[in-house]
Amino acid sequence: MSAVKTLEAVARDRVGKGAARAVRRQGQVPAVVYGGGQPPQSIAIDLVRARTLIYAGGFKTTLFEIKAGGKTVRAIPRDFQLDPVSGVPLHVDFLRVVSGQTVTVEVPVHFINEAAAPGIKKLGGTLNIVAHTLTLEVAPDQIPDAIEVDLTGREIGDVIHVADIKIPAGSHTGEPTDPVANIVPPTVLGAEVEAEEAAIAEAQSAESAEEKAEEASEDGEKKDGEEA
Predict the structure, then answer these.
(1) pTM here?
(2) Range list of β-strands (E), the chain
């Protein structure tokens, strides 16, 4: 399960575009904590810290203890905005979580033991991933870092469904029959390309031979004319 991380923040009294710009000029990112039956709380977090957390991955599945204004609140990121050019964080929304509450999160799917799948290791098949993440309804302190799919014994043609894998915690919001991945046969594209290249080379060789024959014929005609 993802560990709860501490996040230091500063409480904000002023809100609005002007106040947000002032916060950014100070090297911070404006943010808001909402939900849990309480009024929204405006805060500011360090820009470097925010950028590091966002780009490290798993930001939206991490539970934070946010310390601001002498109070500590547990919250999970719901959304964030990045500058479209520089990629710098512009704003973060946190959802306050309370005891007994569940949240909906996208959890990454990791495939393991690919070398133990005969369809891939021995027969040259390819793992075709259908779902890189699965949506779970789970308690905030039980969010898994990832969902592992064991490929041991998998053959070409096998289809892995949600029902075939173990969900560490929470429940999948989709259907048990939803496909996660399948193993497909080796591609024949390489053989087709080789055949096409061989055909082109053969055609070019034939054209070259034809051109040489024409040149030899022209030279013979010129020589006969000179002798006459």
Answers:
(1) 0.68
(2) 5-11, 28-35, 38-46, 64-68, 71-82, 89-96, 103-112, 126-129, 133-138, 147-150, 159-161, 171-172, 179-184
For residue range 44-66, what is the model confidence (pLDDT) as tens digits? Answer: 999 999 999 999 888 998 999 99
* Distances from the Cα of 164 to the Cα of 50, 146, 151, 178, 191, angstroms: 37, 16, 11, 10, 35
Rounded Cα–Cα distance for residues 145 and 162 (Å): 17
What single letter denotes the amino acid at residue 110? Answer: H
Residue 184 carries which DSSP code?
E
Residue 161's pLDDT is: 95
Q: In the block, which residue shows the tokens 């799948």?
A: 117
Q: Which two tokens stand for residue 152?
A: 């041991």
pLDDT of residue 55: 94
What mean pLDDT, rounded, does the chain reach? Answer: 86
Cα separation of 144 and 132, whole Å? Answer: 15
